[in-house]
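User: I'm curious whether this sequence folds into something compact or stays loose and floppy. Could you predict its structure so I can see for myself?
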Amino acid sequence: MRAKVKACLQQEHGNAALFMIGLLSIMMVLFVFVFNLTQIFAVKEEANTTAQQASLAATSVLYDQLDEAIEKYEKSIIGTVDSSPETIGQKIEKKEIQLRSDAGFNEYSENEIKLEAMDIVLTEELRHGLGKDKLDDIMGEEIYQRTLSDMVSQAKSTILENGGNLTDATLTIKNGQVFVHASNTMEGTAFKGFFQDIKEDLFQTSAGPKVDFIEELSNFHNKEVEKSLDE
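Assistant: Here's the prediction. I'll summarize afterward.
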C-alpha cells in the first residue's frame, strides 16, 4: 500500500514539474512577445526621431543658402529700380528688430527670429516686390540647381548619424515644408523556435517647420518635389 501511495505521489510530483516547465515556457514566450512588441514601438520612435532630425537639417540648409540667391538677385536689379533701394537684407534686419520687440516672439531664439524674418520678407517680396518675377526665377533656379542636392546630402548624413537606413528613404518638398520619410531597423528576439528571423525596417515621416516663401515660388507652388535618398 505504501509503495502504491509513494508511486502516486511521485507521479503527481512529476506531472506538477512538467506542468510548471510548460507554464514557464509559455510565460517565456509571452515575455519575448511583449519584449519584441516593446522593441517595435521603441524603433518606431527612433525612426520618427531620424526623420524629424533629417527634415530639420534639410530645412536648415535651405535657409543657409538663401544669401547667395538674394545677393545674385540684388545684383541683377541694379539700374532697373531706384538708384538706392532698400535691399532684401536690410528689410530682413529691420523685420528682425520688429520681431524682437513683439511679445508674441518672446519664446523664439535668435536663430528662429532670423528665419521668421527671412520668411516674412521673402514672402512679401515674391508677392508684391518690384522685381518679384526676377526673384522668383533666381531663387527657383538656385534651389533646384544647387540647394536641393545639398539638402539631400544633409538629410542622408543625418539619417545615417541617427542609425537609420537610406533604403527607400525620400525627401519631399510640398505645402511649404520639407518632409523626410526614413526608417530604422527592428531586429526581434527569438525563443525556442518562436519569433525567428524577425527583422523589419520601420518607416516614419516627419516634416520641418513651415517655409511660407517656398509656396510663392512658381517651381514649388501647388507642386510636390520628391527626391530619393536611396542612391
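Summary: The mean pLDDT is 86. The CA atoms of residues 69 and 142 lie 6 Å apart.
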